[in-house]
């Protein structure tokens, strides 16, 4: 008798699996692109707002702080209401 884990390992990859991989990859790509664009935006931001290098560092760090706090909050909300509900609300 096969266990559930063994049965899942033996299943062939379906079109649905590839769709999930593609959508997950696109989600990761857009998230990484969002973080990467900060470097380009900081140049214009510093020039337009006359910001010093330490101030630009704070602006860049604020984005990462927001991601950190958002992950903490989202994790707690996902534990309470479920990941699916949270993804649909997002």
UniProtKB/TrEMBL annotation:
Xref: SUPFAM superfamilies: MFS general substrate transporter
Keywords, ordered alphabetically: Membrane, Transmembrane, Transmembrane helix, Transport
Entry keyword annotation includes Transcription: no
Residue ranges constituting the Major facilitator superfamily (MFS) profile domain according to the UniProt record: 20-90
Signal peptide residues on this chain, from the entry's feature table: none
Pfam entry (one): MFS_1
Domain of life of the source: Bacteria
Keyword Transmembrane helix attributed: yes
Chief site of localization: membrane
InterPro entries in the record: MFS (IPR011701), MFS_dom (IPR020846), MFS_trans_sf (IPR036259), Sugar_transporter_CS (IPR005829)
Transmembrane portions of the chain: 20-43, 55-74
GO MF annotation list: transmembrane transporter activity
GO cellular component: membrane
Membrane topology: Multi-pass membrane protein
Cellular localization per UniProt: Membrane
Similarity-based family: Belongs to the major facilitator superfamily. Sugar transporter (TC 2.A.1.1) family.
PANTHER family: SYNAPTIC VESICLE GLYCOPROTEIN 2
The protein's name in its UniProt record: MFS transporter
């Amino acid at each position: 008798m096969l266990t559930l884990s063994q049965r899942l390992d033996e299943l062939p990859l379906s079109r649905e699996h590839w769709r999930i991989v593609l959508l997950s990859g696109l989600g990761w790509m857009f998230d990484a692109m969002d973080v990467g664009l900060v470097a380009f935006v900081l140049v214009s931001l510093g020039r337009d707002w006359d910001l010093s290098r330490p101030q630009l560092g704070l602006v860049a760090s604020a984005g990462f702080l927001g991601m950190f706090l958002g992950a903490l909050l989202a994790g707690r909300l996902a534990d309470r209401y479920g990941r699916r509900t949270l993804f649909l609300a997002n």
